[in-house]
Amino acid sequence: MLSSADDARYMAAAIALSQRGRGRTGTNPNVGCVIVKKGVIVGRGWTQPGGRPHAEAMALADAGKAARGADIYVTMEPCDHDSERGPTCSRLVIEARPARVIIATLDVDSRTRRHGIDRLGEAGISVSVGILEQEAHRAMAGFFTRMEHGRPHVTLKLALSLDGCIARADGTSKWITGAVARRHAHLERARCDAILVGSGTLEQDQPGLDVRLPGLENRSPQPVVLGEAEPPENWVQISFPEEISGLADTNWLLVEGGAQTAASFLRADMVDRLLLYRAPIIIGGGLPGIADYGLESLDSAHGHWRREDTRDLGEDRLEIYERAA
Amino acid sequence: MLSSADDARYMAAAIALSQRGRGRTGTNPNVGCVIVKKGVIVGRGWTQPGGRPHAEAMALADAGKAARGADIYVTMEPCDHDSERGPTCSRLVIEARPARVIIATLDVDSRTRRHGIDRLGEAGISVSVGILEQEAHRAMAGFFTRMEHGRPHVTLKLALSLDGCIARADGTSKWITGAVARRHAHLERARCDAILVGSGTLEQDQPGLDVRLPGLENRSPQPVVLGEAEPPENWVQISFPEEISGLADTNWLLVEGGAQTAASFLRADMVDRLLLYRAPIIIGGGLPGIADYGLESLDSAHGHWRREDTRDLGEDRLEIYERAA
After folding, report:
1. Which of A34, B52, B126, B167 is 20 to 30 A (C-alpha) from A122?
2. What function does this protein fulfil (chains A, B) (predicted)?
3. CB distance B321–A284 less than 8 Å?
4. Which residue among A162, A263, A284 sits closest to B293, beta carbon to beta carbon?
5. Could you tell me how far CA A46 lies from the centroid of its own chain?
6. Phi and psi (nearest 5°) for B114?
7. Cβ proximity of B249 and B193 under 8 Å
8. Full domain range(s) for residue A102
9. What are the pLDDT digits (tens) for A210-230?
């Protein structure tokens, strides 16, 4: 008999695997899955680029016959709706005859929600739901945001001085943060489907927006410009923040500024996460990171952001805030 | 025989005591002292308001005859220059006949430097110097800054939003931070001799600058205004940051803004410590905390500030930076 601590540990491993697909699964959830038998992980899988095969299919193929009688940990309820692209995961799981299926969170797609777990239960498989549910929700937030709000999950990233500037008054912004922080920011790019800047930033900085990390160059997200600037080849152009709903295959969007673009996403209440790289420098009278977004009073500024993590990155400090519930 | 770990522990206690006098010892160092005999602290003392009696005199009076053969931990070399206000601490210590005197840091006053320890050594007392020297230096930084630069130690305090604003565009600043952070800021006031704001802040906010903490009301620092505003009764007025050198009885100065005042102290290279209370709110297009202070390039902004501490204060975060060596 496994303890709930063991269950949580294996689920944490499945959640970690789920991040491997992040930013490449289109509108599919980036699910992770591990299969455990007698204390040994015999199968691992995560949603593949484009959204198929699913994590469970990958893990079951990895485990082979060892899946029989094993415990399957999966970050989301196995899919139960037919697709031209392959069999449902609920069917694959049942055929593998595991002892238990442990699920972090239910699907929110009405074609599957509860159908997946009901199907497993009818087949005589023990099913548990809810282990590390909150962590799993965060790990697949792009999918859930799309299902709930019809748009990608939005991270607003800013590299700031202590006094909240993103550049000197003359626009100079190289560099606010150090090499470690900048590499971390590139890793965040690799975890998104699309990346957006405003017209002003495009015209002034002509940013590449690619992932410049060895081995991850092919993880560069789709570049998007907001506004009227002439977009470079292969860029997507939108006129309003609301148009991010129409971005193809995008669960995760990274918004990199500048100040007007940040404000327009805040005004539209479309920022889910703040990624603030804070350098130990004072610019003084520089360009502020966020322009007026229509805040009506100081009171109304409070209660919207909850600090989720902070860490040192070289001399700099990363502060991550998430939308308060 | 005491281990050096014991020595460090007792010296840490002496340093903690030194903070009780901080902001009330005039131009004297705020020294702390503990006397230890057979593992028991038999005497404690710190520099009294106005600068006398000194910490050693207080601790020796507290210990009485128990000081004989004991170990005396003191954060700074005992004074060795005669004063109308009482005997030298070196003489008091010798008369008490301790076994050892453990000193964190030497005095920098040429009337005493090394004379204090030489006098003790000549009297046959064992003397150690240098334990927790850096910590002691920080704890008495007001005195050392005055001796080295002829001016008080300056802390610049700002209450900021995530985007570096100290108010909305219309000047509204109540409140950026929460009750816990504001109380902490009042505690910092109580630890300073004087507190300064610019003319604009005085005219706009009419701040009391007093310590509004139960039991510490009498610890309110001397209010000072920088600039041309008509000062309220009992305030001191100066025209340039450099004039803080002339503030009476001031080792520790707290500068509370606004943006122009912060910039003028930065321009004069007179900020030793940053006390940033950071609230989890976004103002957007508000008043920046620090105005242009003449930064010549982004490169030259780096390397000046080292993070010394961060802590949570309710929903807010306190970040303390110190001048990098």
Report:
1. A34
2. Converts 2,5-diamino-6-(ribosylamino)-4(3h)-pyrimidinone 5'-phosphate into 5-amino-6-(ribosylamino)-2,4(1h,3h)-pyrimidinedione 5'-phosphate.
3. no
4. A284
5. 14
6. 70, -25
7. yes
8. 4-145
9. 888 888 888 889 999 999 989
